[in-house]
Amino acid sequence: MLKKLGMNPVGTVWSRWSQKTKEGMDEAVVQNRLIQSVVAKKWSILLLMMSFLLGRAMILDQLAPFAVAFFAVMYFLRRELTFWTGLFLIAGSLFSAAPQHTGYIAAEILVMILIQKGIERFERSDISFAPIIVFTSTFFVQLFAHLVSTDLSWYTFMMTGVESMLSLILTHIFLQAVPVFTLSRKNYSLKNEEVICLIILLASVMTGTVGWTLGPVTVEHVLSRYLILMFALVGGAPLGASVGVVSGLILSLANSSAIYQMSLLAFAGMLAGLLKEGNRWAVSLGMLLGSSILSIYIGNQAEVMNSTWESAAAVALFLLTPRAMIQMLAKYVPGTQENLKSQHDYAKRVRDITANRVEQFSEVFRQLSRSFKQITADAQPMQKEEEVGHFMNSVAEKSCSTCWKRNQCWDEKFYQTYKFMTDMMTEVEVKKEVTRKDILPQWKKQCVKPDQVLEVMKQQYGLYRNDQHWKKQIAESRQLVAEQLFGVSQVMEDLAKEIKREGQELFLQEEQIRSALEELGLSIHSIDIISLDEGNVEIEIIHQYTKGFDECRKIIAPLLSEIVGEHIAVKNEQMLERKEGYSTVVFGSAKEYEVETGIAGAAKGGDLLSGDSFSTIELGNGKFAVALSDGMGNGERARAESSAALNILQQLLQSGMDEKLAIKSVNSVLMLRSSDEIYATVDVALIDMYTAHTTFLKIGSTPSFIKRGNEVFPISANNLPVGILHDIDVDLVSLPLEPGDILIMMTDGIYDAPGHAVNKELWMKRVLSEIDTDSPQEYADMLLEKVVRYHHGEIYDDMTVVVARVDKYQPEWATFRWPGMQRIERPKTVS
After folding, report:
1. How confident is the model at residue 506 (pLDDT cuts 50, 70, 90)?
2. Is the full-model pTM beyond 0.85?
3. Using 50, 70 and 90 to split pLDDT, how confident is the model at 584?
4. What span, in angstroms and rounded, lies between the C-alpha atoms of 268 and 261?
């Protein structure tokens, strides 16, 4: 019925749903914007109130440097409030102790705006110019006013300079402090200098309340003590005393009779901060005691009572302050728990987002790998019948389409013609050169132009073979791309797991290690456990060290070895610049085995450049790689190919890619580097530093040998070098090594030394068994010398030998047990 009326029921439902969804989204956006506008209005009202008080604030009853400095900062940071800020500053100056300064402030603001507009005209406006602009406007307006009033003297000139310099300094200070109120700071982290600037701004605002009283209570004294209580609770004694000194200094400048307030507030702030562990009541008690003690010594009985009432009013205001406001202030102060928690939450949020993004990319690469594999699987070779059918159609179209016997051959005698064509195609496929003699006599009798058909068939078969070759190449390339994409996906998945693992909460384990170290008398600043995975432990400790004692290797590492249950060694040690006598030490899992290597080599004919390349490197994932590559031929070109193979392979293995896939990737890169026939052998031994289990990857290389005592046995594999075939077979040979084993890897220049008439393997085993040394370098030198002497000093090919000796790792210091110390509990690995 709806369709008859021209209506689409699905479309109608969808349009209604989308409309409701859009309305819901619009409503959510409106609510979010409403909340933001309310918050912005609250901060705007607070800034305008501060403007009024700063316009009223004065120093020594004749200097007003606060107004124009605050206006300049607001001009750059909150341009939309510029008019209202200027209006409230001027209004506040009307209620100051010297209302005649209102004209000066208005003129300074006007001059400052004119100078700024002139600078903007030349497109050179920048917030860094604000202090200079403020200084210039204040100085010249004051100087012009004194010239007009004919009261210019050295004293007035000096006071003009002082006020101008104060305006410049206050502009610098306000530039650091005002962003806290304008919400332009995205992170909750202030430097100590920025905290002091914030305190100066708040104390300057309090100066605007000088002269306000409520009975016996003076408003500026109440606010200054309230400010001390807030910062003492948040930052402790150092911050409380600092707030007391700064606020007392500024209040004494505004009112010379309140000079004693500096010492009173500093002492009260220090005492209140010392009791911060007892929360608000203890901090309040400390401030009451500090202010009462000094007020008794400084003033008379009436002043003592007034000071007590002021302190009580500040305490009452402090106790009524919402907890959220104190926590917000604590987030800005460095070193507080709230600040550390906000930074930790931010780092955790970034870590989680990074891990999720990496997992998404990993899934993208995995899907791409599946797509390429699916294309390769779907592109199966056509059936033989279909291939023959296509082939026959092409031959018939080119040779029979213009023949006068076409209908007779393909309509009346179809099966016979088809069989003759099939037999001929088989002959073409089997024999490289098919001539007229190979054509069946029956076919010659039936076909009027067998020679032409034969030539067309040979031509089409060549095209068919070429087509099949490229199809196979495309399929192999797709398969390689799929495997490489899967390898990249696997590496990114492992990276995501590593990122998540670093975010594990390990507070209990950190406290256990801290208590054990502090019981030994060590001064530990901080402990950060990055990983507790077996074989991959990583612990960062900042401690106070004593020169010459080396506590980290002699005490901390052995103790950690006992707590964790595996050998722990010092991985990195760095002295802290900001804290003298402290160092950051990274402890990690010590390897169970160590590898010592030696290399010896010679270029063909005694040249300087050999075509062989070698590498011995610790991959960073608990494995040690010994690699050797022999490029085709000799000289610079062979060296380039062999070094390229090893460099690419090393980077892929360090990234965590699978060994087989890494070899295949190196093979594809070498094939794409040049169209010439270039190749390189690859011989790699991956030694696990924790188990001594070794994996050999041998691509076209000569056999390697392991010498264990007096016994020598070979490690070999049969496959071609990389860079020859698109699809290569990678043979992995795995076996465990034992302490004291010597691994010998060599290029064909060493292995082929005895010539073709001698059994090379037996000859090499005999030579290796006769070398009597445990030093890998001496072993490599002696083997090369024997080969060179065997040829009477002649070097017929590039020769390189790499020798590695595996030994059990012996820690420098033994572990020790401390009474009451327990093994640490390892967390479960993130899957």
Report:
1. low
2. no
3. confident
4. 10
**What whole-number distance in Å separates Cα of residue 174 and Cα of residue 57?**
15
Residue position matching structure tokens 């302490």: 739
Looking from the CA of 267 toward its CB, the CA atoms found within 13 Å total 13
What is the Rg, in whole angstroms, of the alpha carbon atoms belonging to the chain? Answer: 43
Query: How far apart, in whole angstroms, are the C-alpha atoms of residue 236 and residue 234?
Result: 6
Indicate the average pLDDT of the chain: 76
| Contacting residues for 535 by C-beta, under 8 A, at least 6 apart | 566, 589, 622, 690
**Pairwise CA distance, residues 542 & 544, whole Å:** 7
How far is residue 93's CA from residue 104's CA, in Å, rounded to a whole number? Answer: 10
Q: Coil, strand, or helix at residue 26?
A: helix
pLDDT on residue 568: 82
Determine the distance from the C-alpha atom of residue 752 to the mean position of all C-alpha atoms in its chain, rounded to a whole number: 49
- Residue 731 CA to residue 527 CA, distance in Å, equals 45
Compute the half-sphere exposure of residue 729: CA atoms within 13 Å on the CB side of its CA: 6
Identify the pLDDT of residue 38.
Answer: 54
How far, in whole angstroms, is CA 810 from its chain's centroid?
35
Cα separations in angstroms, 584 against 74, 340, 420, 575, 815: 43, 19, 86, 6, 22
In the three-class reduction of DSSP (H, G, I as helix; E, B as strand; rest coil), residue 199 is classed as helix
DSSP type of residue 277: G
Task: Work out the burial of residue 202: count CB atoms within 10 Å of its CB; fewer than 13 is exposed, 13-18 middle, 19 or more buried.
Answer: buried
H/E element, 12:
helix 9-56
Q: Report the alpha-carbon distance of residue 410 to residue 136 in Å, rounded.
A: 105
The confidence score (pLDDT) of residue 656 equals 67
What single DSSP character describes residue 589? Answer: E
Element housing 341 (H / E): helix 337-378
pLDDT in tens, 437-451: 666 676 766 777 777
What residues form DSSP beta bridges with 722?
680
Residue 563's contacts (CB-CB under 8 Å, 6 or more residues apart) are 512, 513, 516, 821, 822, 823, 824
Map tokens 């341009």 to a residue: 79
Q: CA triplet 219, 222, 227: central angle to 5 degrees?
A: 125
pLDDT of residue 675: 47
Cα separation, 612 vs 640, in Å, equals 9
Residue 614 parent element (H or E): strand 612-618
Residue 338 and residue 329 in contact, taking contact as beta carbons nearer than 8 Å:
no
* Residues 6 or more apart whose Cβ sits within 8 Å of residue 816: 558, 559, 562
Token pair for residue 608? 């300087």
Please compute the mean of the pLDDT values over residues 76-98 and round it to a whole number. 86
Q: Of 323, 249, 238, which is closest to residue 272 (Cα–Cα)?
A: 238
- Distance between CA 637 and CA 608 in Å, rounded? 14
HEC profile of 636-695:
HHHHHHHHHHHHHHHHHHHCCCCHHHHHHHHHHHHHHHCCCCCCEEEEEEEEECCCCEEE
pLDDT digits (tens, 9 = 90+) for 41-62: 777 888 889 889 888 888 877 8
pLDDT single digits (tens) 555-571: 888 888 888 877 888 87
CA dist 280 and 273 (Å) reads: 10
**Each residue of 90-132: pLDDT tens digit?**
888 888 877 777 888 889 889 999 988 888 887 777 788 889 9
3-state secondary structure of 524: strand
Residues 453 and 402: their CA atoms lie apart, in Å, by 12
Give 59-99 as a 3 state SS string: ECCCECCHHHHHHHHHHHHCHHHHHHHHHHHHHHHHCCCCC
Contact 664, 480 (CB under 8 A): yes
Q: What is the largest CA-CA distance in the chain?
A: 143
Amino acid at 121: R
Question: How far is residue 632 from each of residues 183, 393, 572, measured CA to CA in Å?
Answer: 66, 46, 42
For tokens 């610790």, what's the residue? 618
Report yes or no: 827 and 624 within 8 Å, Cβ to Cβ: no
